[in-house]
């Protein structure tokens, strides 16, 4: 601020005014001190507060000494989104700042804020994020599994048949898999994972950042046995290693090349099949040349 420049008018609770728009705030998944300083600033200054669980947000604000100060605190969750969304959009249209907080973790990740964000974008309002805690990233960090490529798959279906179909679709994905699961179903899910995904390495991360945090690592079949005999509580994230390289035999190579040569040149087919089967490109190219000459 230069000399002679007017001091900006204070916002709610004496906080500096917040730019109009929808501000998504990541909130702690366990330890209350994991919230960021920027998120606290937004909670102090926002004109309107919205939350998946207003009790959780109010408690978090009390812990950090942030008064509500007569500001609206709007519940926004899966069951009332259609009714609550117009009220929040009206506030944005009036040029006000709206802060939305998930119950725990990053908004829109297994959280009802998605439709609110889409509606705000469609109406031309600024949408901003204050990044912070995330159970997905915390679990990846402590799992000991590859993090260069990962897929968050959400919650598996509750029924066994649907769950196994769901896992079968994920099986060929060349990335570390991250899923959420209920403590009531974790043993069944691990059993199905062992059947469908095979003997992959995995980590079951429970109560991350909380007092009874626990990470169990090992092959899926052993984890299924371990959790089959246990009664557990708390939030659970399961991290599973990617599919191992395909061990292709001569028949697999020939079948893949014949299919590829139907629409590709020898060079293109060799490159595609080498990547698909995890085989040396030179060897696959030589096999492709032989097949092309025989046709």
From TrEMBL:
Organism this protein belongs to: Cereibacter sphaeroides (strain ATCC 17023 / DSM 158 / JCM 6121 / CCUG 31486 / LMG 2827 / NBRC 12203 / NCIMB 8253 / ATH 2.4.1.) (Rhodobacter sphaeroides)
Record family assignment: Belongs to the methyltransferase superfamily. RsmI family.
Protein task: Catalyzes the 2'-O-methylation of the ribose of cytidine 1402 (C1402) in 16S rRNA.
Annotated GO MF terms: rRNA (cytosine-2'-O-)-methyltransferase activity
GO terms under cellular component: cytoplasm
UniProt-recorded name of the protein: Ribosomal RNA small subunit methyltransferase I
Alphabetized UniProt keyword annotations: Cytoplasm, Methyltransferase, rRNA processing, S-adenosyl-L-methionine, Transferase
Source taxonomy: Bacteria, Pseudomonadati, Pseudomonadota, Alphaproteobacteria, Rhodobacterales
Catalysed conversion reaction: cytidine(1402) in 16S rRNA + S-adenosyl-L-methionine = 2'-O-methylcytidine(1402) in 16S rRNA + S-adenosyl-L-homocysteine + H(+)
Localization, UniProt: Cytoplasm
Residues annotated as domain Tetrapyrrole methylase: 22-221
Gene: rsmI
